User: Fold this.
Amino acid sequence: MNDSPHSLNPRTRVAQLQGYADRTTGSIVPAIDLSTTYERDQNYQLPGGRLYSRADNPGYEYVENVITELEQGAASAVFASGMAAATSVFFALKPGDHVIVSKEIYWALRSWMLDWAANWGVDLELVDTTSPAAVRAALQPGRTRLLWIETPANPTLAITDIAAMAELAHGANAVLAVDSTFATPVFQQPLRLGADLVMHSATKYLNGHSDVIAGTLTTHVKDAFWDRIVRHRFQTGNVLGPVECWLLLRGLRTLFVRVEAQTRSAQAIAEHFAAHPGVERVLYPGLPGHPGFDVAGRNMHGGFGAMLSLQVTGLAQEALKVANSLQVWRRATSLGGVESLVEHRASVEPATSPTPKNLLRLSVGLEAAADLIADLEQALKQS
Assistant:
């Protein structure tokens, strides 16, 4: 490899797994290490430095090193799921801590947070983080320990200013954590904007093939808070299996080409339906009319991601009729895979969810954009 590998474009580094080659065989693809334990020598020491696969499987390191470089952080950790990664951050808190969370985030995490906070003794406050003034008013210096944001938000694509949140959080001596799943490291590196932690549901774009459940966290600095997160992962066994690590690593190698192509299609779809009579509103931060367009331009570079939502003209029944009339788009939960998916979020979220009833969330895949647009057109005509 180049004598200065970090001068190479990130897409080059990730495609070649940072120049990986096995020292013994010359293999350019890491092997899957299925061993759960490692032998000690006659002095009962660990010559390889590995104790047990729950913490020391080499497969973790390959994935973590790639993601750490992509996010320009100090260290990363892989988890059994995105929820496992996110909840590990909250379990690093202590009873009595005050936490601010974006109002608009993935509903399953939001529901878990509300139940957990009450039982754990944490003072959790839901705030409109698109408003720095609202966050400033909610901060309690000396008590606020964590500010958790998701940008772009699921499923409304609301945009929060990462740099502004970092300044506010650090002014109160709090940690800023960012769920950057929708944006991916291709377009957004929250740590460069001042965040302390960045989280991904790696099930989505990092893997990209709808066949692995995984989560990741990356830290700006290896401090005591990070140590508590990593220790919690080891103690609870919230680790990723070695086969899943290998599949995630394979998916990462095509991250840039997949996400860039998907994003071009998403932009084209958003622009096409921006003034469509069957669509009340297109929620996509790449449209100048989006309320977070300017902030998204500061957070993200090179594109606005491959997720968008359409608010169909009418109520829930009209949105469901559109979804049921689609022939190319697949009706399924999740996102970030090579196939395009549509989901009526209000049907799968609880009644207390703030998601509009006429909203369809679209995950744009690798199909021809013209086919995806034509399918939406015919479905909208039938609604």
Q: What stands out?
A: The first strand starts at residue 75 and ends at 79.
